[in-house]
Every structure is written in structure tokens, then in C-alpha cells.
């Protein structure tokens, strides 16, 4: 992160410095060729800055370059002054129009895996580089003392392309919306998706979608992914062959609601879900992106969905335990298909000479009442595990980096593991090796025991039958198991870690709760045959799709809520 900031500051200083130096040289000295060379270098620097920092607002530098190059050109080719005035005005107009055009284009629907591209987005993304190329061409023409009219023609052509490809389409869509005739809508009608996966979340949350895509594809029906934030388009579209559409506004969602759709799936309780739930002709199904005893897993907002797919009876009981009243018929127990590849074992951990422990600290949450993160005491835990000769796999929550204190604590744990690996040769796994090169399932299968905070990882690990420990970071003591029943089949580490040695003895040796875990496993993850475990979800999803067959009509949606 620090290196990235230094790189952005360096290119910022270089771009601004070269632009100012070029202008001063061309405006105040007679060294026109030197000034033109500096202008070309400044244009290259501005282009590089756009690549390094796409969000940078670069207006002053191109304006300075335009002014400087025109002054130098007029000195070298005096008879071209009036042509240069028109060329300069056109270039200035393009430069000033770029940012508003980019902002307007951000509200356009974009797609991937659909064969449709938004011309306003394409034009807005290329207008800045095009202006820089025009500047370079203008500087080269000045240095060669060529006539100025070819540069004027090129500038006018770029302006005309900008008007036809971006300004006109954006204006027409604002003045005369025609969702049913848009290229995206027409392509989706040809694709005829039967269901969609709707997703809106903060940056870094794409894992919530990734875990479900393979199983949505296994349903065997055409579908689409509807995103609300454009930053997810690249990673999500790379993970599936299904069409992926970004609808940045509630009204733009209308373009994606083609008549063939029957079901909408959701993986979280994002506020923007309401923009899709307003379409009453769809069956809206909440999948969740994990099953845990955390408070968000019993969110009252779940009641707005037509169906709630849960892994097991424990999820239904969780809502009732938290005072959330939802009719039983809204729930469907489908298991958690993501665990189907987890290896199940009944071999006692005490029989293993070398033990591998998976440690998965969660994040701090948005609010203090859902902060279950054990990173503040993580170093004590890691060192005790190392003292017992274990190999550690450290896999932190994807949101950990959002909290600077958590990021520093995680970096310290990785340093401790790196030092121990160098000293003992034990092959600890952490950092990118654990978070990106290995899936969670691979981490589970490679380990023999788990230490985790209150999180969905415990539910997934429960499927393996292997022992786990849970950190009581909320300090509830005896009430902890009542609030988080899944901890009752694991070994609870007190908030002050005072019972750590006893817990590690049970976790890594005696394991007195082995049989209790198998009973809990059915209650949390359903009772489905291991060979066809994912069929619980696939069959239930197909049933709802088949229930929606009939005349394909799209009723007028309820009014979109204010975002």
C-alpha cells in the first residue's frame, strides 16, 4: 500500500512538473523545439498517470500543454494562427468535456459475456488518451513546421466521434428512455435467462458471489448475474460464462428484467437488494454467503424474501432464538453445497504425529457488537501452537485489510510464522499462499484441527468431522454457548486466553467432544448423502424455477426506493 502511494505521488509530481516546465519554455523562451519535446514527455507522463491512478482528475496538465504547444506552433508557423485558434478551442472543449462525460457514462449499463458493449463507456474511456495523442501530433507538426489544418481535421473527427458515440446516446436515453429496445435488453432476451444472481456489496466482497457461481451453473438453466457496482464486473465475469450486467441505478435494472426470468437469488442483506425485490413477478430467494451463529445470520431483513435457503435446522432455530419471527414455510433446508468437496475423517487427531492447525480469525465487523475478531490475541495463540510443534495455516477474513489495526496485527502473525518456518523448516502457510493460492476447502482438507472466531468457517469445518476451537472474544463466559450454540461442539477459548493450554490439550489430543460433533453436523448442515450432497440445493432451486413456468410476462415493478 505504501509503495503504491509513493508511485502515485511520483507520477503526479512528474506529470505536473513536466507540464509546467513545457508551458514556461514555450511561452517565455525561444527554445520551441525543447519546449515541444517537453510537451511530448509531459503527455506521456499524463498517460502513465492515468494507467497508474485511473481516478486521477487530470485537466490542468492537458490545458497547459494545449496552450504551450499552440504558442510554440504559432511562432514556428505564423500563418497558421487562426487555424490554431479553432484547433485549440476544440481541444480545450474535449479536455473539459472528458470528466463530465466519464461521470455520465458511469451510470450507463455495462455488460460482459453478452457480446454487447456500451459506446458511451468506450468513448469516455478513450477520450483522454485521444486528446493526448492529438497533442503529440500537434507538437510533431509544429516541430516539422507543417500546416495546421490536418491537426484541426483530426480534432474535429475526434469531437464528432465523441458526439455520436457518447453524448448523443446519453442524451437520448435521458430524454427518451427505451429499456425494452436497449442492446443489453435485446441480448438478454435472446439469452433467455431463467434466473439471476443479484449482488451489491462493498469492495472486496466478490467471494460472496464466487462461492455460489459453480452451483448456479450446475442447476443447468440459463442465468445471469446482476451487479450494482462496476468494480465487480471484471472478477465476476472472469469466473463464469453467464452474462454479467452492471445496473448502477434502480431504473437501469428495468433493462435486465426480461420476461424469461422467474427467480432472483441473493447472497447477502445489502441495502440495495430492495431495488430488485420490487419486481413482484419474481420469486426472491436468499442464499446467504455463509452459515454461522453471528448476529447478521439472523437478520430480520430476511423476512422480505419469498424463500430463505438454509443449510440445516440450526439456521431456522437461530432466527427464533434471536426473536426474529419468520413463517416456517419460508425456509428450505438445502445443505451448504460448498462443503461437498471437504474430506470427512473419523481418525482421532491424537494418532497423528505431525499436526496441522488452521487458524481463521474473522474481521472486526461494522459495529462493536459484532466484533468477534481474535487478532489482538493472535500472537499468543500462534506462539502456543508453535511451542507444541504444530504447522499453522493462517487464513484471515478478506475484510481484514479494511481495519488498519487488524492489518498490522495480521502482518505481525505472518512475520512470526515466517521466522519459525526459517528456524524449524515447518511449512506454515499464510499470506497470499493461504488466501489466494489455496481455497478454503483446500485449507480445511490439509489441516487436522481448526481454531476460529465466531464465523461461517466453523460450520464448513464441522462437515469434516475434525475438532475445532472457538474464541470467545465477546467475553460471555458461561453464556457463550447459549448465544453461539455451534461452540458447544468445540472447545471455547476464553477472552483472556487463560484456558489456552487446556483447550489445546483437548483440541490436539484427547478430543472428548468427537461424538457430539457428528450430531451437531446434521443439525447445522442437513442430512444429505455425501455422494449427492449438493443435490439438496440443486433440486430445490430447480423446483422453484419449474414452479414459475407459464406465460412470460413482466408486470410493472413497484416504485424504486430512493437510494
TrEMBL record:
Transmembrane segments: 20-46, 58-76, 82-101, 121-143, 149-172
Domain of life: Bacteria
Oxidoreductase listed as a keyword: no
Organism: Plantactinospora solaniradicis
Top-level taxonomy: Bacteria, Bacillati, Actinomycetota, Actinomycetes, Micromonosporales
Entry keyword set: Membrane, Transmembrane, Transmembrane helix
A Pfam match: Glyphos_transf
Coiled-coil intervals, chain numbering: none
Designated name of the protein: CDP-glycerol glycerophosphotransferase family protein
